Amino acid sequence: MSAYLFTTPRLGFRTWKEFDLDDFAAINADPEVMRFFQKPYTREDTQAMMERMQNMFEEKGYCYFAVDLLETKELIGAIGLGWKTFESDFTPCVDIGWRIGKKWWNKGLSSEGAKACLDFAKEKQIQEVLSMASTGNLASIQVMKKIGMSYWKDFDHPDLKNHPDIQRCSLYRIQF
Length: 176
Hints:
GO terms for molecular function: acyltransferase activity, transferring groups other than amino-acyl groups. Helix 1 packs across helix 2. The protein is globular and about 40 Å long. It is 31% helix and 30% strand. The protein contains five helices and eight strands; from the N terminus they run ββααβββαβαβαβ.
């Protein structure tokens, strides 16, 4: 296995590898994990996401990283930074996000990983990081608060026009 870009006490962050596809596709296919997205991802959707993340890493030096639990070397999901360009008064912007398998929920792993990604953003001299989640996604909003982000505003996500149940989003930010 390749070396990690950075670690926390429990997590290792790295770029995506072909061998991640089965585990990440299983996480992305879970309707509970994907509750606040348009739909669960197919294997092809997951493959495309992994390729986008690799390309983003090559272009920007960050992405939603593949994250392993160091103790077992299991892929738990993705935590990292993204580049958002959808039509809005706050884009383009760097955002932070996470998606981990249900097996690892409620263990503080998203918060631990997101804090490390904020440190990574500071090292990259990124001056502001945003995060957004559907207003009903209280678990993700709690992570945003836990990692020191401040509520900015609510907005209707333009990419979710056909999904009114998840279109209203809360936007948080942190500046360095």
